[in-house]
Amino acid sequence: CALPISTVVHGYCDIPSGQRIHFVEKGEGFPLILCHGFPELWFSWRYQISALSAAGYRVIAPDQRGYGESSAPERVEAYTMEHICNDLVGLLDALGIHHAVFIGHDWGGSVVWNMAVHHPTRVKAVAGVNTPMYPNVNKSVDPLAKMKANPKIYDYQLYFVEEGTAEKELEADISRTFRILFRGSGPEEQLPTNQHVDLRNVRQRGGMLVGYPDDPAPSRLLDAAALNYYVLQYKRSGFRGPLNWYRNITANWKWNYETAFEAHVTQPALMVTTGRDPMFPPSASKPMEKYVGNLSRAHIEDCGHWTQLEKPDVLNDILIRWLRSVIEYPLQSKL
Prior knowledge:
Elements: E1 9-14, E2 20-26, E3 30-35, H1 46-54, E4 57-62, H2 81-94, E5 100-105, H3 107-118, E6 123-129, H4 143-149, H5 155-161, H6 165-172, H7 174-181, H8 202-205, H9 224-237, H10 240-244, H11 249-259, E7 269-274, E8 295-300, H12 307-310, H13 312-326
Parallel strand pairs: 3-4, 3-5, 5-6, 6-7, 7-8
Antiparallel strand pairs: 1-2, 2-4
Helix pairs in contact: 1-13, 2-3, 7-9
């Protein structure tokens, strides 16, 4: 099937840290930076790139550090949130952009909230899709230690923390990996399993994908061309870089409580929740008004975690309406 983007411009920039960032862009107007999550690519924003550029914005979607055609250093320590935010500052500098609207999903949501706090002059407005802002409010409790004491739905993250194990499983059959992970939230998208499969028992089962079919049925979220693109990119770059993001939970916590303890977001902000996301239920974002002073909200009830793919038209409408409320024309964005 044809992909929903007719033309995007691919670019590469070398930033002061020595990393190379691959990005795509489309359109003209005020710049938007779209930050993807795990296990994704710039490509996960393909429906938004098309719609937002048509709405009059310059849309820029990078492959984040460790993903796709961007640099993927080997060391775990290279994937702290501080480094990843600095990558985006370097991208803005390389493109001559003073500030932009940042929109993020999953790990990308964490990135954009951190950008708003740590680099406020570079963030005109910020939106989290599924991922709420989690401020540091407890300097004495390492979130990784808290997770280990009571894993619940975060058990898969503890599985990811062990170097080499998850890489081996996820890379064994990359097509199968994506056909299992990228699925809609409706009953027609659910896969048969030969045992109880849950994010809360990943280590007990011996892996993230254990219990799922060897040859899963296609998901409506990924047509053959889209699946092929993910497979080709991950065959090239692998899963180590993306998984290394999970191996810096303690480092990120220390960075935030040392530099932005109980920080507030002052920019215009949007939080998009969904009704069927097991990782980020709407309740997870309930305290955000305490830390985000100018917060708008939107909710998509019949949608799971992969919002950009499952409900692209609804999400695009939400984003465009919000953008028109926070961006005044003409607005200078260049350095």
